[in-house]
Write a structure and sequence with these properties.
By secondary structure, the chain is α/β, with parallel strands linked by helices. Helix 9 runs antiparallel to helix 10. 46% of the residues lie in helices and 17% in strands.
Length: 316
């Protein structure tokens, strides 16, 4: 990455990137007091969660989402303070990460975003307990293949759908355990394979309809900004910049429909001219996807203050 005026997109990862001690690297940063602020908004001791909760505790959906959200917020505020977000043209976040993106873009105040994440996590956890499900990543399967495999499974009486279209040759499916098993068995015929994901729910599928219903009230009670920086929405990949976004409707749809990540990345690239992508939060999952989507783009990630400091000369 070089110090120029290249339009940059800032992206935030979602659930699945949580890990024991993930808050430790940020503990001495100027933004760390935000952890206490978010804790007060949601009624959870996030310092304990970020510093001491083990991986088993963090697997629970509501805890995982609050932990990942908070680290994303810390990384964003530290990046602002470090002056590395000078040419940001747009934002995106994968699933849960979309809430960090909305906060970063100015669509949501921090307290409102935190309360929504807490409500979303509880709603998804409850829905998964009421109707257990599973998810699996299809490797070497394009959108057409993923849709065909899930359609065939539904025709055979199984509940399973495409949940994420992440990058060329990488999709995620979601549904009942039997439905995931049916897709896994059939994938080889198409030259693909399925890797089961360690989740307890059929996220981003119609099996989350109860969660969407529960989240509706929380979404309706929160004000979204009339004007904000562009955010590529998960549900269709389109850029939203204000009141016309109808974010409450989009976030309910996001729970029960697929995350169209590849489309969002292409919108940031094609409509805003983003040639540089900066991932803020733990891991490099999104950076890897973006490299596969846009091999000509430049990507960087900052999952710790040290990695952020390495970018300070870039002045993105």
């Amino acid at each position: 990455m070089t110090a120029d005026a290249t339009p940059t997109a800032v992206v935030f990862p979602g659930q699945g990137t949580q890990k024991q001690g993930m808050g430790g690297p940020w503990q001495d940063c100027g933004s760390w007091p935000l952890v206490k602020e978010i804790s007060e908004h949601v009624g959870t001791d996030l310092e304990e969660l970020l510093l001491n909760a083990d991986d088993e505790a963090l697997r629970r959906t509501d805890r995982a989402q609050l932990a990942v959200f908070t680290v994303g917020v810390l990384a964003f505020h530290e990046a602002v303070a470090a002056g590395v977000l000078k040419t940001v043209a747009g934002y995106a976040g994968h699933s849960l990460g979309e809430y960090v993106a909305m906060h970063a873009a100015g669509a949501l105040e921090l307290g409102d975003a935190a309360r929504l994440v807490a409500a979303r996590g509880r709603a998804m956890r409850d829905a998964a307990e009421e109707r257990p499900g599973a998810m699996g990543a299809l490797i070497k399967a394009d959108e057409e293949t993923a849709e065909s495999l899930t359609a065939d499974a539904r025709a055979a009486g199984h509940d399973v759908w495409v949940a994420n279209l992440n990058s060329p040759g990488q999709a995620v499916v979601s549904g009942t355990a039997d439905g995931i098993g049916h897709v896994a068995d059939a994938a080889a015929v198409h030259g693909a394979r399925l890797v089961r994901l360690p989740v307890g729910g059929a996220f981003h599928s119609p099996m989350m309809s109860a969660a969407a219903t529960r989240l509706a009230g929380a979404l309706a009670s929160v004000p979204f900004a009339d004007v904000h920086a562009p955010v590529a929405a998960n549900v269709d990949g389109r850029l939203r910049t204000g009141a016309e976004a109808h974010w409450p409707e989009l976030e309910m749809r996001q729970l029960t429909g697929p995350v169209l990540w590849e489309r969002g990345v292409r919108s940031l690239h094609g409509e805003l001219g983003c040639r540089r992508f900066l991932e803020l939060g733990r891991g490099r999952t999104l950076s890897g996807m973006i490299t596969r989507i846009l091999p000509e783009s430049t990507t960087a990630s900052a999952g710790s203050p040290e990695e952020l400091r390495a970018l300070t000369s870039v002045r993105t």
